[in-house]
Specification:
Blueprint: E1 2-5, H1 10-22, E2 27-31, H2 40-47, E3 51-55, H3 57-60, H4 66-76, E4 81-82, H5 89-106, E5 112-117, H6 121-128, E6 135-140, H7 147-158, H8 162-167, E7 170-173, H9 186-199, H10 208-220, E8 230-232
Parallel strand pairs: 1-2, 1-4, 2-3, 5-6, 5-8, 6-7
Length: 246
């Protein structure tokens, strides 16, 4: 299996772990130059058997173009190519199971569900199974994350779910990226530290820390109706904190 990701990609981390567990080979196409020592994410992937191949950011932008994918197949042989973030039809199907799993766990209806968004695949899977009275918010981990809305609509239309897409019972919240992907500041670190002390629950600086910061800020601003039940998904990524000495 060959897939794509940045230096802090949870998807690269998870794919390497799955490949090792299930006994297949994996290749990670990594955006940007190699830096040593490797960070916690890439170190884990490499130790787990994933072959890391670094490409320029310019070349990385071609990751969804058919001619470039064909070049990769010629270079690496008979590989199954999984898009960045696992964002294909099968990936969305997996994410569609999240709401049923959560509903069975909390055993009560909810009004709003939130997740951190990188490629938008998780959010698209959630949207696909929302009830009409429910709403989903994806907190972008990237600067200028508004483009995610187009990507999510494309995911949904590819699944022939245009009616859900146009219903707009979801949105991207792109005001809490803290300067961009893997960018942090003292406010975010302080929030994460206080969150840990208050709830004995760790967040990561790349994804979930930004989501919970944004969610708490929106609650403070009385964005939601009184007595709303809000579900926030912790999507992992704690290994990334080692790169920030957190």
């Amino acid at each position: 299996m060959l897939t794509f990701g940045g230096a802090w990609s949870n998807h690269i981390y998870a794919t390497a772990a799955a490949a090792k567990y299930f006994g297949f080979n994996s290749i990670g196409i990594i955006r940007g130059e190699k830096h040593t020592p490797l960070n916690a994410t890439l170190s884990f992937a490499e130790k787990g058997g994933m072959k890391l191949h670094y490409i320029s950011r310019t070349e990385y932008r071609q990751k969804n173009e058919s001619h470039y994918l064909q070049t990769l197949k010629q270079q690496f042989g008979d590989v199954y190519i999984l898009p960045e973030g696992g964002s294909n039809t099968l990936g969305l199907q997996g994410c569609e199971e999240i709401i049923d799993e959560i509903s069975n766990e909390i055993k009560q209806p909810f009004d709003i569900i939130c997740c951190a968004s990188g490629t938008g695949a998780t959010l698209a899977g959630l949207i696909a199974t929302l009830k009409s009275e429910q709403f989903a918010i994806g907190f972008s981990a990237l600067k200028d994350g508004a483009f995610l809305s187009k990507d999510i609509e494309s995911f949904l239309q590819n699944k022939k779910m245009a009616a859900i897409s146009t219903a707009k019972n979801w949105r991207i919240e792109d005001n809490y990226h803290f300067g961009g992907y893997a960018k942090i500041n003292d406010d975010l670190i302080h929030f994460m530290q206080q969150f840990q002390l208050s709830y004995d629950f760790s967040l990561d600086a790349v994804y979930t820390g930004k989501m919970f910061y944004g969610l708490f800020d929106l609650i403070k601003k009385k964005t939601f109706k009184p007595n709303s039940t809000i579900v926030a998904i912790h999507s992992g990524g704690l290994q990334g904190n080692k790169g920030f000495n957190l």
